[in-house]
Design goal:
Layout: H1 6-13, H2 16-23, E1 29-31, E2 34-39, E3 43-51, E4 56-59, E5 65-66, H3 68-76, H4 80-88, H5 96-134, E6 136-137, H6 142-149, E7 164-176, E8 179-194, E9 200-207, E10 219-220, E11 227-228, E12 231-235, E13 242-245, E14 253-257, H7 260-268, E15 276-279, H8 283-287, E16 290-291, E17 302-303, E18 319-324, H9 330-347, E19 352-357, H10 364-368
Parallel strand pairs: 14-15, 14-18, 18-19
Antiparallel strand pairs: 1-2, 2-3, 3-4, 4-5, 6-7, 7-8, 8-9, 9-12, 10-11, 13-15, 16-17
Length: 374
């Protein structure tokens, strides 16, 4: 398929939500600017996400990702040429005038999509800042007990990080046909996600239920019976981090885990006492986009250097340590972390990168709580 085929521009200009609807993909629920649910290829519950702002999708399990044509290929089991024809029709010769019209329409669609995505992003950031502003100091609240349940007792963490707050009654919302609906209201731990400029760009929320052994709430959508994730992010997390400790202008070592509990577990363990400990929010944010096309490339850990929004440590950092959880697929997890480290080392000459792995089947918080290998 040659790049001059006019249908490529037509296919890329289509809103990806329209492609989802055309394909009849079922079970996806709106979560902010994403559709989340089972992967049309490998199934699951919430491992598959469609980013409506950027027009891309990603499965955290089978690592399928891409844009509109890739989504057709994944769902329909087609090769590229057949998928393109399915999406925008058969190839045909176009006059120069018709080609200009199509290119103009595609550009107009692109600008409309980008403007809508920018508005949605700003709305999400505004909502995140409102939630954060309404939060209360976390000390002496259910947050302290929740962290203790996770092995992070007060004697290990005597001072609560400033980036953590408490919401006594935070609504848990899901998308419905009539808009957003509240399916649960309860206490939650809030964590500020700060962008590279230090400004709050998102809020990570963990709903708490101290009647449960691990302290995490179990939230079920009454309309579908589906159990929802107890942790959600609102705002723009790309390139940001939860700054649990350390001076962003002085510390030379950064230790970063994917989640709050993992990173706090590393922090209270006493290793690298002078380091910054930041949580990366999720693996995709730590890794950024990767190169995956080509034989042997999927697990090679090669960064896509055109991803200018991927996380980078502050300029003062000379050693970046990524904590690798042992309870996820090891080859793919390591490939993603390697891509993130390699990008950072290329962008920050002189930086050294390292992966610190938890035992197989466990994350670092499991180790802190003394769980056995499983």
């Amino acid at each position: 398929m040659v790049e001059s085929d006019h249908r490529l521009a037509d296919a890329k200009a289509m809103p990806i939500e329209q492609v989802v609807n055309l394909l009849g993909i079922q079970g996806l629920a709106r979560a902010g600017h994403e559709l989340v649910g089972p992967c049309p290829s490998c199934g699951g519950r919430d491992r598959f996400g469609v980013n409506l702002r950027k027009g891309v999708f990603l499965c955290r399990r089978c690592d399928a990702k891409g844009g509109n044509i890739d989504l057709v290929m994944l769902t329909m089991g087609m090769e590229f040429k057949a998928a393109l024809g399915w999406l925008v029709g058969p190839s045909q010769e176009l006059s120069a005038e018709e080609r200009r019209k199509r290119e103009k329409r595609a550009e107009q669609n692109r600008l409309v999509n980008e403007a809508r995505a920018a508005r949605e992003r700003q709305d999400a950031i505004r909502m995140a800042r409102e939630i954060w502003a309404d939060g209360k100091p976390a000390e002496g609240t259910a947050v302290r007990e929740y962290l203790s349940r996770r092995g992070i007792a007060q004697d290990l963490l005597p001072v609560m990080p400033k980036c953590i707050r408490f919401a006594p009654a935070l609504p848990f919302t899901v998308k419905s046909e009539k808009g957003w609906k509240v399916i649960h209201t309860g206490p939650a731990m809030l964590a500020a996600v700060q962008g590279p400029d230090g400004m709050l760009s998102a809020v990570h929320r963990t709903w708490i239920d101290l009647d449960r052994p691990n302290g995490k709430a179990v939230v079920t959508d009454p309309a579908t019976g589906e159990v929802q994730p107890s942790k959600k992010v609102i705002g723009s997390k790309k390139g940001g981090a939860i700054r649990l400790s350390g001076n962003a202008h002085q510390a030379e070592v950064m230790v970063m885990g994917e989640g709050i509990e993992t990173t706090l577990s590393a922090m209270v363990s006493g290793v690298d006492a002078g380091a910054m400990f930041w949580a990366g929010v999720d693996l995709g944010n730590m890794a950024g986009r990767r190169r995956t096309r080509g034989e042997g490339v999927k697990f090679a850990g090669l960064p896509d250097l055109e991803d200018d929004e991927a996380f980078l440590p502050p300029a003062c950092v000379t050693r970046l340590v990524y904590v690798m959880d042992g309870d996820s697929e090891p080859r793919l997890t390591r490939a993603k972390l390697l891509a993130g480290l390699r990008r950072a080392m290329l962008k920050r000459p002189g930086l050294k990168g390292q992966i610190a792995s938890a035992p197989q089947g466990l994350d670092l918080n499991d180790v802190l709580m003394g769980k056995a290998h499983g």
